[in-house]
Fold this protein.
Amino acid sequence: MPANQFNGYKEYGIGIGLRVPHYSHILSKKPVVDWFEIISENFMVEGGRPLHLLDRILEQYRVVQHGVSMYFGSADKPDRAHLRRLKALVKRTKTPWLSDHLCWGSVDGTYTHDLLPMPYTFAAARRTAEKIRQIRDYLEVPLCVENVSSYAEFHASEMTEWEFLTEVVELADCGILLDVNNIYVSSKNHGFNPYDYVNNVPHHRVGQMHVAGHTKFEKYILDTHDHPVLDPVWKLYAHATRLCGITATLLEWDDKIPSFDEVHGEALKANEFIDGAKRAAV
Amino acid sequence: MKQPPKHAPSRVASTADLRAFQRMMASAIIRPLTEEDKLQPRWIDGRPMDEVAAEFIKPNDRLTSFERLQLYNRMYWFRLFDAIRDDCPGLIAALGERAFGRLAQAYLARYPSRSFTLRDLCSRLERFILERPRLTAPRTALAAEIARFEWAQTVAFDGPSRPVIAASRIARTPPSRLRLGLQPYVTLLALRYPIDTWIIAVKRRDALRSEASNTPDAAAAVHRAFRRVPLPRPRRTHVAVHRHNDRLFYKRLDPAAFRILEALGKGSTLSRAIAAAGPRVKAAQVKAWFKSWMALGWFCAYGNKQRPDAS
C-alpha cells in the first residue's frame, strides 16, 4: 500500500506541516524535506503574501493539501464557491491527493470551526459517502478521509468508529488518512482498544498517516499537537505500518511550535518504525 | 442557523435526522459560556442542560454528558476568542481586556461565523459596534473606526488583486471617458481619529511587551510594566490601507487626493474625479499623486467585481 490509487501512486516518505514560524528558515536554508503538508484553507485566498510564499515553496518542494473545513459529514450540501476556490488551489499546488476529515462542523451555513464527531449510523455513512464522491468528482483528485479525535459519543450511533470509517470509505471508494494519534486519543477518551481500530480498517485504502503529540488531563486526553509524539502513539504507528505498508507519513505540530530542526527531527523518528516494519516483513 | 429541534433525534436514520442532530449540537456549542467559562446550566427552553445533553451524548466513567458537551462549547469559544484577539490588538488596547471580551462574546453570539475561514471573523465587527453602542460607550465612534481599520488590514494582507492597468491605456483614453478601478486590497478610510499612527504605537508596545518576557509567570508583571498607549485625540485623517510587495502599509492622503480616489472608486471618469478634488488643487500636485499611485500599482480596469463584498 505504499503507493496506491488513493495517494496518486506516490511514495512520499516523511513530511511535516508547513507552518508560519518556519517560513524564513525553509526559504533561506532550503532544508531537505520529503514533502510539506499545507492547510488548504490558509491558501484559499485571492492574493497577497500567502500565495506568494506558497509559490516559492512549490518551486522547491512537493506539497500535499490537507483541509479542515470540507465537513464531509455535514448534512448541508457542498458549497460550490468553496469547491471552486479549492479546485483553483489544487491546480496551483498539483497535489497528488487531498485529505480532509471524517467529521462535520457547519450547519445551515454557520461554522463552528471544529472537527465534530459523527453519529455512527448507516444513514450518516451513506450521506457522507455521497458527498465525498461528489467532491472528488468535482476536484478530480484522489481523496483521503481522516479519522478525528473526539471527546463525545452519541446514543444514536449504530456501530464503532472504525466500522463507520470503513462503511464510508467503501461506499465512497476513497482513501484513508489514518491518524494514529487521533485513534489513541479517542481510545483513551472512549475506552476502546486502539489496536482493534487499526486492525479492522481496510488497510489497502490507507494513503497517508498522521502522527502528533497530545496532552493528558485527569479525565480525558486532548489532541493538542503541541508536544513530541508519545511512545504509545509511535508503537501504534509501527503496528499500523506493519499492516498497511510503508505509507506517506506526516507529523502535525501546530501549537508551541519549536524550531524547524526539532520538528523535522521528531518527524524523522518515524524512520525507526518504518525500518522495523521492513525487518519484520523480511 | 435555523432553530434546533425541541429534542435531539434518538435515531439518525435520514439526512433530515442528521441535520436535526447537527442543529441541536451546534446550537449547544455556540451558546455563550457562563461567567465561569462553563456550559450554560439551562437550555433555550428552560430545561436543565444536563438533561438535554444526556438526550444525545453518552456519559462515560469519568465525564457526564454535560461535561463532554462542555468540552466542545469551551473549545469553540476559546478558539474564536483567540482568533478575534489576534485580529484586534487595537480594539483591545482601546477598550481594555474586559470590555473587549464582552464585546467579542456579544458579537460572536449575534454574528456567528458564516465563513469557512476564521480570517473573515471580524468582517461584521464595525457594523455590530454601531448596532450595539452601549458595549463600547463612551468610545463607540473610536471603536468603530478601529474595527474598520483592522478589517482593512486583513483585506490588504490577502485580498484579491487585479492586473495593473497599463499607463499606455490611460494615456490613450480621453479623461472624460476613462474610468479606473482601485485594487480591491486598497481600502480608503476617512477617519475622525489618526488610527494609523496609533495602531503603529500599539503594535510597537505589544512587540516590546512580548520581547521583554516570554515567561508565563511573569506575564502579569510585564503587562503592568508597559503602560497603556494613550488614546488618540480626534483629528481628521485620510488614509489608504494597502499592500506593496506583499507588505502591509498605511498611506496618508491629502483630503483632495482622497476625494479623487474615492470618486474613481465609485465609477467617476478621470476628469470628474479630478474635479472632485476642488479648484484649489494644482495640476502639478494631481500629477504627482497619480505618479505615486501608479507606481504602487493601485489602478486596475474598472469593472463590476472590483469591490468584492467582504461580508
